[in-house]
Amino acid sequence: MSAIRIATRGSLLALTQSRWVKAELQRRHPGLEVELIEFKTTGDVKLAQSLTAIGGKGAFTKELEDALLNNLADFAVHSLKDLPTSLPEGLVLACTPAREETGDVMLLRDRAWATDPFATLPQGATVGSSSPRRKAQLLARRPDLKVVEFRGNVDTRLRKLSEGQADAILLARAGLKRLGRLPDPATGEFGIHALDAPGWLPAVGQGCLGIEARLADTRVWQMLEDLHDNAAWAEVSAERAFLRVLGAGCSAPVGAQARYSNGRVSLQVAIYAADGTAAAGAKGEADAQEAEELGERLAHEVMKQAP
């Protein structure tokens, strides 16, 4: 059997996620040879520019997709929130492993602010984030805060916070956990405040890995089958259908949180004004088999509310 080739970005988080997939495959298929092939994406190269300027979060996936289309790799491992809802012809979202926590966290340079940062952050404090969704939800609560563009890997952002380039930063909890960088609330360097639904919505697909493969590659599909998690699939199917109908890119100020339980999926969604001054939202529930239809229906409800 020839080696399985995994396309991955070269960031520490991307490599950590791809190495986990590699280890899981080799655990299930003893003797299987798996090779990680690193690619630099546009998003990795153009760190000085905003995500909007370089084409949204699809800037983190194109080079990996080109590798699949040119048979330079057998599948690609993405953070699913970075993967657009419309994929190139011949490629599909083939596998969603079990989902990690979906929420965000605010890390604070001064631990004293962590109990309630929306009340204790100083007037005009600076918060680092590259996400329009996070910025909009933050400004909805504290319009006086100054949100600055923070790009780069997790360690770079943590270093910037430690150096005082911001008073706080917003990050996904899943990435910090996977890297072992989630601060201990009692002893960690930074203060930490959890941001979760229903009061704070994550990105579509946040906390979930997305494995993208060629539609016709049955060997890869069969190999990935044991990694696939039906609950995660139901949740992200609802969330991605919502985003797809909106026609919004992955970097648009959109939040969604689906939950699977006992064969049913609940979904809460919202789309925000960039400055946090307005939001349109909806929620609903359906059988898991109708997860996509649920996301589509709520998208139409939200669009009706939009000014």
Can you describe this structure?
The protein has 307 residues and is of the alpha/beta class. The protein has 2 domains: 4-100 and 204-305, Periplasmic binding protein-like II (D-Maltodextrin-Binding Protein, domain 2, 3-Layer(aba) Sandwich), CATH 3.40.190.10; 104-195, Periplasmic binding protein-like II (D-Maltodextrin-Binding Protein, domain 2), CATH 3.40.190. It contains 10 helices and 13 strands. Helix 1 links the parallel strand 1 (4-9) and strand 2 (34-39). Helix 9 (230-246) runs parallel beside helix 10. The longest helix is centred in the N-terminal third of the chain and has 17 residues, at 12-28. It is globular, with a radius of gyration of 19 Å. The relative contact order is 0.15.
Summarize the structure.
Helix 9 (230-246) runs parallel beside helix 10.
What's the layout of helices and strands?
Elements: E1 4-9, H1 12-28, E2 34-39, H2 42-45, H3 62-69, E3 75-79, E4 91-95, E5 104-108, H4 117-120, E6 126-128, H5 132-141, E7 146-148, H6 154-162, E8 168-172, H7 173-179, E9 191-195, E10 209-214, H8 218-224, H9 230-246, E11 254-261, E12 264-272, E13 279-287, H10 291-305
Parallel strand pairs: 1-2, 1-3, 6-7, 6-8
Antiparallel strand pairs: 3-10, 4-10, 5-8, 5-9, 11-12, 12-13
Helix pairs in contact: 9-10
